[in-house]
Amino acid sequence: MQHSTDLLMGSLSDISRFAATLTMAELGLADQLADGPLGTGELAERCGAHAPSLRRVLRELAAICLVTGAGPDAYALTDKGAVLRSDVPGSVRSSIRMLGEEGFWYAMGMLPTTVRDGGSAFVKRHGHLYEHLSRNPASSTLFDEYMAGRARTLIEGLTTRYAFPPEATLVDVAGGKGHILAAILHANPGMRGVLIDLEHVVERAARTLADEGLADRTEVVAGDFFTGVPAGGDLYLLASILHNWDDGDAVRILRGVRDSMKPEGRVLILEVVLPDSEEPHLGKDFDMRMLAIFDGGAERSREEYATLLDRAGLTLTDVVELGSGANLIEARQH
């Protein structure tokens, strides 16, 4: 009984620790401490904070080893805290800030209401996530940074663990700013790419692909995957797309892809695949966010993806582990 109580009390402490970590990320404390220790007063001045309040947060951050004391009322950044710097590979600063974004914070706090009602409290208040982001440019920029950071953690696994056909055309469906497509094309010099996304996104994607020196190997198309995707591709990539939608909409998206692909083409779905066991898993944590933020959005098991694919006229042929909790699901036409 005591062990169970201790575990639950630890969970209660986690929200306070996350709030302190979020404050560190929002105020850019790791960036300010990158060159060496600073006194609390100077640190507060640099990041525009109230020094007495900041001192209390630093005390909590020291307790979780993100900073460490460096003399009277001074603190230094630890190796653990350094991943909150903006300029380091694998930085988690944008991820922490996105989870603390006003709408996301509200969504997680309202999860009990969502579960009671069977519909997302976030959606009732803010509308669909992408509507919320379109109305809030700062949140949209933060979300783009978060997604780009998340993509970087997946790209190595995607480009080294899956054998792309050497001269294929890859259609990146809702490809965002094009970071994943660019990485695949760099790793496979004979391939070409087409990126489709909404009107307000594709201009940024075109800039990204041009900056990567890939303008002559890519085409950027404005469109909505519910109304159609470019035809004739050899591969269709859906990266972090299907988990945003309920089963009915996911099948609609997949059917549109199936109808557009070559008969021998493949669908590649980049998602977290839930395990069948009851062990802790990153996908189960993500699933709570999907439940809170989307009406019907969900992480799914291999069997659930196989069922969706079958309803869309596709057969699951492989699941490739990519690391960082992600998987690449391959499917072909029946």
TrEMBL record:
Domain O-methyltransferase C-terminal: 111-314
Domain O-methyltransferase dimerisation: residue ranges: 22-83
Species this chain originates from: Nonomuraea maritima
Keywords (A to Z) from UniProt: Methyltransferase, S-adenosyl-L-methionine, Transferase
PROSITE patterns: SAM_OMT_II (PS51683)
The keyword Methyltransferase belongs to this UniProt entry's keyword annotation: yes
Name under which the protein is recorded: O-methyltransferase
Domain of life: Bacteria
Catalytic residue list: H243 (proton acceptor)
Example of a GO biological process term: methylation
Lineage of the species this protein comes from: Bacteria, Bacillati, Actinomycetota, Actinomycetes, Streptosporangiales
One protein family per Pfam: Dimerisation
Molecular function, one GO term: O-methyltransferase activity
InterPro entries: COMT-like, COMT_C, COMT_dimerisation, SAM-dependent_MTases_sf, WH-like_DNA-bd_sf, WH_DNA-bd_sf
